[in-house]
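Trying the structure run again after the queue cleared.
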Amino acid sequence: MATAGNNFESRQKVLGYPVDVVNESEALSMVENSWELARTMHVVTINAEMVIQAQKDNRLDRIIRHAHLIVPDGAGAVFALKLDGHDSVRVPGIELAEKALASAARKGIPVALLGSKAEIIEKLRKDLPKIHPGLNICASHDGYIDETEEEAVVREIAESKPGLLLVAMGVPRQEYFIDKWISLFPGTVIIGVGGSFDVFAGAVKRAPVLFQKLHLEWFYRLMKEPWRFNRMASTLPNFAFQVLFNHFFNSSPRAISSSERHPSGGRRNHSTKKRRAREPQDRSKKSTESKESTDL
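Done. Tokens:
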């Protein structure tokens, strides 16, 4: 199974984690190139909270480092890159997903949706083809999947042969899920999109454009959902401190060489390598929205 390697020379590091310094247009071009070459691609949309979480989670750490495309979704990641002299811009996962859907509609690429609630998925099946004429939603399922039915659900989606699979389960569950099943999706671009389905369906409003331009989307969401405060307070100051400390006291950052981009030279072969033992999963159905990204 071919996998999409990253050919950009501008892959950099944020607290040791690889991040591609690309804009939205470049990221979309990589997605479209993967379709043309029938290559598998896992896209991670990284932010400050994910970085701090990965520092404590070996499995998430490994998944991020092995992703084919890692875009700076959050303002924190962009801040860290700019502090080190890189001309970085935000590539919000929700916007990349929207562009990918539009491109899939134009190119006749089948799309599968996985995550969120059943009523949200049903609404998206009706609404997205109206927004993107010609869009073929070949498969869909909500994110409340029992452990006993998970494999059957995934195999059914895989049999529909989607070129684009959007997984909206929140971090880190969506990353675990993608890593576990990506070998069943040869030639598919898979993007973890957090709570984007709720926004697409109109169930949740995205921050006003002004907040987006000022990189304050996270603050808007905090105002709307104050329950996020404790989680953000335990991660964002930590991230900022580490970034500043590394910038002023550690050696100058460097671009990641092609050999560092991926242990297998930029490619991942899921069909020949044994996966690490899976972490135990809750046997009850899991909510898809408990770990939604903060956009910072």
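Strands lie at 11-14, 17-20, 41-46, 69-72, 111-115, 137-141, 164-168, 189-192. Worth checking whether this holds up in the mutant runs.
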